[in-house]
Amino acid sequence: MPSSVVSKMQYDPESEVLRIVYVSGMVYDYKNVPPEVYEAMKASGSKGTFLNRHIKTNYEFEKVSLR
Q1: How far is CA 65 from CA 2, 7, 9, 21, 26, in A?
Q2: Total number of domains constituting the chain
Q3: pLDDT over 70 (residue 1)
């Protein structure tokens, strides 16, 4: 089922950066996200709920401008 919040997510296991592209078009990089947390998010029934409960509150982030 598509997420109403998350349009796309990418994960770089080397740097442990989780990039979230929101449905709104905004892009954020969440830093030092362990691979098991990314895997749990991929497997979750609601990406938006998982993001709010487990990612946003626990990991530093940076807004990314893609131009």
Answers
A1: 24, 16, 15, 11, 8
A2: 1
A3: no
> What is the pLDDT, as a whole number, of residue 3?
73
How far is residue 57 CA from its own chain's centroid? Answer: 12
Each residue of 35-64: b (16+ CB within 10 Å) or e?
A: eebbeebeeeeebeebbeeebeeebeeeee
Whether residue 1 lies inside any domain: the answer is no
| Structure confidence by residue, pLDDT tens digits, 15-54 | 999 999 999 899 999 999 999 999 999 999 999 999 999 9
According to DSSP, the β-strands at 17-22 and 6-12 are antiparallel
Measured between alpha carbons, how far is 63 from 19 in angstroms, rounded to an integer?
10
Q: What is the pTM of this model?
A: 0.90
Domain limits for position 56 = 6-64
